[in-house]
Amino acid sequence: MTESKREQIRDIILNLTRSKCADTSRFISENMDRQPSPLKWLKVGFHLALCEYCREYKTQLKTLRRLTQDLEKEGANMEAQAFMKPESKERLKQIIAKKN
Q1: Which of 19, 34, 72, 84 has the greatest CB tally within 10 Å of its CB?
Q2: Is the pTM above the cut of 0.90?
């Protein structure tokens, strides 16, 4: 089967499910923290199985989420260190040096 034929079949199936990339990407970003209905997830999962662009978008969102969570943790650690007494900072440095 040629690549153009595959694309035509994919487009037909996507049209049948009436799930467009704009709807799917919006759904993915809005539902990262909540559990939508199984039927909606099935429709989106079907779209993702056929659409490499939306799969890539989902991967990018997951990466961004992980990176921002890491930054939040670093920020909390830096904030805690800003209020530490000098003796506590020195003790922490000694503990870290022993582990390395």
Answers
A1: 19
A2: no
